[in-house]
């Protein structure tokens, strides 16, 4: 047995003994590595470099990959959480297969691929270059679509592409509605010089949901746009289907590796989705994050709010369609900020200062009699007597108690997710909810009815509060536990911060106590690698059966992937470093990257106290691997 295979087998056995069903690696599209001859400045999960990365992750012991949202993005916005609901991110399409894979008949000229790769800026190193990559992919896909159309017109498509064309037409017929709307939105954005419909002329801004009296004008305008932009609509369908073909191939490859693939359902709607669904959007309010322990100011996301009047009808149908699409593409789904589907935190859209507005916001469906938000009374599910007036309105206990029918009302949208999962033979356990420091009573009740847990982010744990939600001791089997997320500092950055702020000793003492190994305390104080391993071991020995690791923690990166509320070229751009494979093992040897073997061994030894010798023996075997 080679070392990689032995490491994979021992890691799998250790996870089984620790009661961990899923060890997942989280990474977003832009962060994937690429081989030098295919790298245009941004990662793709469909590249050859990504294929090697998946095998590497499998060999370390991971059993699932968690991607970020994969909705289509504008060239000037790298945040995956602002992507489209149905159109996939074409910037993630791998270009090399279009030039080199015989199945695609060289739709992209080989010299075009070389030119695009050579044009990639070399700095900053280790960062995705979103605007550059977006422009490069657009040029490549325009060329590929032109070649496809010309060869089809002349009857020169090879057999594999004839089959592709047939599948494309069948798929397009089933999805024409959103394909056309998203394509026309892009055309109108170009025509009006703005990516947001709020800046467009009134008729175009409400073209899909015209105001009374504008119906005939809107219908005529839509007909004219369809005719004028027929080629653009067809090109959009081609790009979208190509993305889906690459994604289907990825799923088949991951299945052969024994890796599950999880997607991410973003809570926000892109401007194109809002424009397409104005009839189900509540005017006058936007959605954000309420003040919380870890984010006292709150966040004014600016996302639209689904109208409660449509929760039983059109809004639920829209979410059901999104959910169905997700379960067609993934084995499981991460639900981004589920409070947005149960009881959104909303604030006035016309406020001069959105940050002040979000701090004085309210719960959409739990505000029966607020003087500063009288409109929300019509949407309230709770009665005034069920509100605890002694607490701030964003507090978990603002709603004191709920009755069964009230929980049913709160769950109307969320139940669409569960129905979509179960319709495809997947149990509700394939859904996992990003509940962080706050868990309002309505959200808790809805999750409980489906047996879903929350997130436990251990780097945020308050070591002075035994009841703190982020402490591993408080995790339950249905929870997902992790050291950090894409929105937090990496553990390697934190190691330095804790040392500089005099907090490292408390962490060392806590971890040594949790793992039942007093001798660890001194080692953690001098070795950042042991701190990170012990922090992961702390998570692995909790009751949670699902553990997630963000790629920056795996590779020992100290840079931040995303700083919430910040707009900069660095945000959403961190990539797996060049030379990542050999580099990881060398850094691991030096204690500068996460050593999963050591974390598993620490966890096994913590469990071995008072248990059988098998755990200790396996821990020893893991530590002897080279």
UniProtKB/TrEMBL annotation:
Enzyme Commission number(s) of this protein: 2.4.1.25
Catalysed conversion reaction: Transfers a segment of a (1->4)-alpha-D-glucan to a new position in an acceptor, which may be glucose or a (1->4)-alpha-D-glucan
Membership in a protein family: Belongs to the disproportionating enzyme family.
Enzyme class, spelled out: transferase
GO biological process, one term: carbohydrate metabolic process
One matching Pfam family: Glyco_hydro_77
A GO molecular function held by the record: 4-alpha-glucanotransferase activity
UniProt keyword annotations, A-Z: Carbohydrate metabolism, Glycosyltransferase, Transferase
Presence of the UniProt keyword Glycosyltransferase in the record: yes
Source taxonomy: Bacteria, Pseudomonadati, Myxococcota, Polyangia, Polyangiales
Protein name: 4-alpha-glucanotransferase
Naturally occurring in which organism (per UniProt): Polyangium spumosum
SUPFAM superfamilies linked: (Trans)glycosidases
């Amino acid at each position: 047995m080679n070392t990689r295979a032995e490491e994979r087998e021992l890691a799998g056995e250790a996870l089984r003994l620790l009661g961990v069903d899923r060890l997942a690696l989280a990474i977003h599209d832009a962060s994937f590595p690429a081989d030098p001859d295919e790298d245009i400045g941004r990662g793709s999960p469909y590249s050859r470099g990504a294929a090697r990365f998946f095998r590497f992750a499998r060999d370390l012991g991971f059993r699932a990959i968690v991607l970020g949202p994969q909705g289509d993005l504008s060239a000037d916005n790298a945040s995956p959480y602002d992507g489209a609901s149905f159109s996939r991110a074409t910037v993630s399409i791998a270009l090399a297969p279009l030039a080199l894979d015989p199945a695609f008949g060289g739709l992209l000229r080989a010299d075009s691929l070389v030119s695009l790769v050579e044009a990639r800026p070399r700095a900053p190193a280790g960062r995705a270059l979103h605007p550059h990559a977006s422009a490069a992919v657009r040029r490549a896909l325009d060329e590929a679509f032109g070649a496809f159309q010309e060869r089809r017109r002349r009857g020169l498509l090879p057999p594999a592409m004839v089959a592709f064309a047939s599948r494309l037409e069948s798929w397009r017929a089933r999805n024409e509605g959103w394909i056309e709307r998203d394509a026309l939105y892009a055309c109108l954005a170009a025509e009006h010089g703005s990516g947001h419909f709020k800046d467009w002329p009134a008729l175009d801004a409400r073209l899909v949901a015209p105001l009374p009296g504008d119906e005939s004008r809107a219908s005529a305008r839509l007909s004219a746009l369809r005719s004028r932009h027929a080629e653009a609509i067809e090109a959009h369908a081609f790009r979208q289907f190509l993305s889906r073909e690459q994604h289907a191939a990825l799923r088949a490859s991951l299945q052969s590796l024994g890796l599950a693939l999880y997607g991410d359902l973003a809570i926000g709607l892109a401007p194109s989705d809002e424009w397409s669904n104005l009839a189900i959007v509540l005017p006058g309010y936007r959605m954000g994050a309420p003040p919380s322990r870890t984010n006292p100011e709150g966040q004014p996301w600016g996302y639209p709010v689904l109208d409660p009047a449509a929760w039983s009808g059109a809004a639920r149908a829209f979410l059901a369609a999104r959910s169905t699409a997700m379960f067609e593409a993934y084995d499981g789904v991460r639900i981004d900020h589920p409070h947005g589907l149960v009881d959104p935190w909303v604030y006035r859209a016309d406020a001069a200062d959105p940050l002040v507005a979000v701090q004085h916001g309210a719960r959409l469906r739990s505000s029966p009699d607020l003087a500063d938000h009288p409109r929300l009374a019509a949407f309230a599910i709770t009665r005034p007597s069920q509100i605890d007036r002694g607490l701030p309105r964003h507090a978990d206990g603002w709603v004191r108690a709920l009755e069964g029918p009230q929980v049913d009302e709160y769950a109307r949208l969320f139940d669409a997710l569960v129905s979509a999962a179960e319709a495809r033979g997947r149990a509700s356990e394939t859904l996992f909810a990003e509940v962080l420091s706050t868990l309002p009573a309505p959200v808790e009740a809805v999750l409980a009815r489906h047996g879903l847990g929350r997130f436990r982010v251990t780097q945020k744990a308050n070591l002075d509060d035994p009841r703190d939600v982020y402490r591993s001791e408080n995790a339950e089997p249905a929870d997902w536990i992790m050291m950090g997320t894409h929105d937090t500092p990496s553990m390697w950055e934190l190691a330095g911060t804790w040392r500089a702020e005099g907090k490292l000793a408390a962490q060392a003492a806590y971890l040594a106590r949790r793992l039942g190994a007093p001798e660890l305390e001194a080692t953690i104080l001098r070795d950042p690698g042991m701190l990170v391993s012990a922090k992961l071991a702390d998570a692995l020995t909790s009751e949670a059966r699902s553990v997630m690791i963000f790629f920056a923690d795996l590779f020992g990166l100290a840079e931040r992937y995303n700083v919430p509320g910040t707009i900069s070229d660095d945000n959403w751009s961190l990539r797996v470093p060049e030379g990542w494979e050999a580099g990881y093992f060398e850094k691991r040897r030096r204690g500068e990257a996460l050593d999963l073997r050591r974390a598993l061994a620490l966890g096994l030894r913590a469990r071995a106290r008072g248990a059988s010798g098998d755990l200790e023996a396996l821990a020893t075997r893991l530590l002897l691997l080279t």
